[in-house]
Write a structure and sequence with these properties.
Bound molecules: fe (iii) ion
CATH superfamily of the largest domain: Periplasmic binding protein-like II
Shape: elongated
Number of helices: 16
CATH architecture of the largest domain: 3-Layer(aba) Sandwich
Number of strands: 9
Distance between the termini: 77 Å
Strand content: 5-15%
Largest sheet: 9 strands, mixed
CATH topology of the largest domain: D-Maltodextrin-Binding Protein, domain 2
CATH class of the largest domain: Alpha Beta
Radius of gyration: 27 Å
């Protein structure tokens, strides 16, 4: 107020303004001051978190809406199919990114290797995520899981004729198997799990056996393998579980319902180490300017309210051990999972890739 009076009493105004006009000007100045002050404080205290996400908007946006509703923290998302790692590296310390969300341990690990994630000590994350599903240095945390299963033709492959993933290299399946290329992250992680279980030499024999049994050159994505079974091109395929749900209930492309209907899911290795799983997850960026909000969002994503959405929207399995499976996921069969620490898959990925190159998968 002192400032306003000083300005209005400055000699420029002192004689030229009537007392009434000075009164108006005081009010206008006051309003302006209030406006400026409130804009500054809003920017200082606006709670937000910036997410770089490889996960599709249709899946992840409902989580963020829930989060904002319950915390008041606004979530800004940059969605991309690739290049987020390169982007964070290019932005360096100035990056606006607080949190990265991605699928597959291979991609999470790329962020660790470039040293752009920071360790997070959170009792909630420790409690809600089992040991084997988070980084031992606390730099990334799995938020959902998927099993890589064997899909068999309902009509042409007898139930229980495949029990272990190792069975796929049996010569009796010659010309019967379809897969996407071995060097895809999903297959590379699968092979890494076989290396961890059986050693490199046996894993290579297995991969060579798969290649020898292929009905066609590896091509297409996971759903394309189910389609190939439906069309009779092959009888057996390797697939992530959530694709089954996405095909089974696909109203946009109803032909995919037929693909799903032609296959049966086989959870492998139930009598030994359990079925290979992979994860989707996230980590907090080293240069995060909203670290507390990023941690709050990560923690929120492991709470039951959010965990159930992974299953109901995307047919993924929750990581939180307190969660019940949805009826749909239950109907696919409850299974024992391979508890190999997921970070081992990243560690063995380069060895797996060499095998894939050698056997030409
Ligand atoms: Fe996928």
């Amino acid at each position: 107020m002192l400032l306003i009076n000083q300005i209005l009493n400055h000699r420029t105004w002192r004689y030229s303004l009537s007392p009434q006009k000075k009164g108006y000007m005081k009010i206008i100045f006051r309003l302006l001051l209030i406006l400026i002050a409130s804009t500054i404080s809003l920017n200082l205290f606006a709670k937000e978190v910036n997410v770089y996400s490889y996960r599709q908007p249709i899946l992840i946006d409902p989580f963020f809406e829930e989060f904002t509703k319950s915390t008041g923290i606004k979530v800004n998302v940059l969605h991309a199919k690739k290049g987020l790692l390169e982007r964070v590296l290019a932005e360096g310390e100035d990056t606006p990114a607080d949190l990265v969300l991605t699928v597959d341990i291979a991609r999470l690990n790329q962020f660790v290797e470039k040293d752009i994630l920071q360790p997070i000590n959170s009792d909630i994350l420790q409690m809600n995520i089992p040991n084997h599903l988070r980084d031992s240095n606390n730099k990334w945390f799995a938020l959902s899981k998927r099993a890589r299963i064997v899909a068999i033709s309902k009509e042409r492959v007898k139930k229980n004729s495949i029990k272990r993933i190792e069975d796929l290299s049996d010569i009796k399946w010659k010309g019967k198997i379809c897969t996407r290329p071995g060097s895809h992250d999903y297959n590379r992680s699968l092979l890494a799990s076989i290396i961890a279980a059986n050693g490199e030499a046996i894993a290579e024999e297995w991969a060579a056996g798969i290649v020898a049994n292929l009905a066609r050159k590896p091509e297409g994505n996971d759903r394309a393998q189910a389609k190939a079974i439906y069309e009779g091109v092959c009888d057996i395929a390797v697939m992530n579980t959530y694709y089954f749900g996405k095909m089974k209930f696909n109203e946009k492309n109803p032909e995919q319902k037929d693909w799903a209907n032609s296959i049966e899911l086989v959870f492998t290795n139930q009598e030994d180490r359990g079925n290979h799983i992979n994860v989707a997850g996230g980590g907090v960026i080293k240069y995060s300017k909203n670290k507390d909000n990023a941690i709050a969002l990560l923690e929120f994503l492991t709470q039951p309210k959010a965990q159930v959405l992974y299953s109901s929207i995307n047919y993924e399995y929750p990581v939180n051990p307190d969660m019940q499976l949805t009826d749909e996921l239950k109907s696919w069969g409850e299974f024992k999972e391979d508890k190999l620490p997921v970070e081992k898959l990243a560690e063995l990925a380069p060895v797996a890739q060499k095998i894939i190159d050698r056997v030409g998968w």
